[in-house]
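can u do me a favor
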């Protein structure tokens, strides 16, 4: 009986996960897997973000958090080492998320590490191939 409880405890601690196992060979070398989102973006936000120390870590945190909402498509950074304020272009669906929500979400990350200084909004329409 004790050995059965021990085995179950070990399985729960180390073996049970709802996440699929990902090995190093499943990951592309040098970059993250790209998750394609089907977001009908209708607005582009151009933001100035203070507090980013690197594009991969900080930018990745911002990108992943925004895309997890399901209402944000592409997130691109114009990152330059040593620059205090970095630039971001974020493609959103305004029928599902507001630009103010995007700003609040960014500023809530990493215990308030990021500060959005300015935001320019412009309409976005996908170019149709003819």
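np, heres the sequence
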């Amino acid at each position: 009986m004790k050995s059965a409880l021990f085995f179950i405890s070990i399985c729960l601690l180390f073996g049970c996960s709802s996440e699929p196992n990902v090995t190093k060979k499943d990951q592309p070398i040098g970059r993250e897997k790209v998750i394609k989102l089907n977001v009908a973006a209708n607005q582009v936000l151009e933001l100035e973000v203070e507090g980013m120390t690197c594009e991969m870590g900080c930018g990745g945190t911002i990108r992943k958090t925004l895309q997890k909402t399901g209402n944000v498509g592409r997130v691109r950074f114009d990152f330059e080492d040593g620059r205090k304020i970095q630039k971001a272009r974020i493609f959103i669906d305004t029928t599902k998320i507001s630009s103010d929500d995007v700003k609040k979400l960014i500023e809530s990350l990493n215990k308030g590490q990021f500060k959005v200084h300015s935001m320019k909004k412009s309409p976005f329409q996908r170019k149709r191939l003819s």
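The beta strands are 43-50, 72-78, 85-92, 115-123. hope that helps!!
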